Amino acid sequence: MRVLVVEDDPSLLKVICDIFEQESFLVDRAETGDEGYYMAEQAIYDLMILDVMLPGIDGVDIVRKLRSQSNRVPIILVTARDAVEDRVAGLDAGADDYVAKPFAVSELLARTRAVLRRHGTIDQEGALVWNSIRLMPAVRDASHRERMLQLTATEYKLLEFFICNKDQILTREQIFDRVWGFDSGSATSAVDVYIHHLRKKLTGTGADQALRTVRGIGYLFKGEPYV
């Protein structure tokens, strides 16, 4: 899964990024509100860790702007321990939870798991599940009825993104930025090529038919098994 961390304190930014990288998240980072907001607008993240006090747009305004655009990314605010008004404003704006500085690693991870469960992203065991397909993000394994799916790293990232965003149309640009990255030298045509390979490997699981092409836009992965 992919997380965006927005924090202007370089030492704390590094600590938070290290925490999520150790948990096998792909991590992007920003040190200003404007940069963080721009990156979050791309709608390619499964989670956002967002400081309230930032240069430029503050964290609460970022939450408010994203929610007004129907961006449903789970957001955990990072606030000063005594900033009750900031926490209330952030939650009212649409943030999912908050942690107060200083915080324990175990608390941040526990709140992350709780938020992702509430959003239906993971189950109690931390797995991503669609019908009989099960993905374990911690080890990046995918299986169907306990049989391992032999996916490449890119194919796994594609399937993970689709399952995390069931019933949402994803543009080719979104998919490319999420899987290949903003700075990749590849072309967006790679999206169609790799989705073709992924569909072939998903034959017989039902997911190959749930993954539908939206002509001229991108792809849609149905939340319920295809019938």
From TrEMBL:
Q: Which InterPro entries match?
A: CheY-like_superfamily, OmpR/PhoB-type_DNA-bd, Sig_transdc_resp-reg_C-effctor, Sig_transdc_resp-reg_receiver, WalR-like, WH-like_DNA-bd_sf
Q: Does the keyword NADP apply?
A: no
Q: What are the protein's GO molecular function terms?
A: DNA binding
Q: Ligase: is it a keyword of this entry?
A: no
- Where the record annotates domain Response regulatory, the positions are 2-116
* DNA-binding segment(s): 125-223
- Locate the 4-aspartylphosphate modifications and list their residues: D51
Keywords assigned by UniProt? Answer: DNA-binding, Phosphoprotein, Transcription, Transcription regulation, Two-component regulatory system
> Which PROSITE patterns does the UniProt entry name for this protein?
OMPR_PHOB, RESPONSE_REGULATORY
One Pfam family of this chain: Trans_reg_C
- Which part of the chain is the OmpR/PhoB-type domain? 125-223
**PANTHER family, per database record:** REGULATOR OF RPOS
Name this polypeptide is given: DNA-binding response regulator
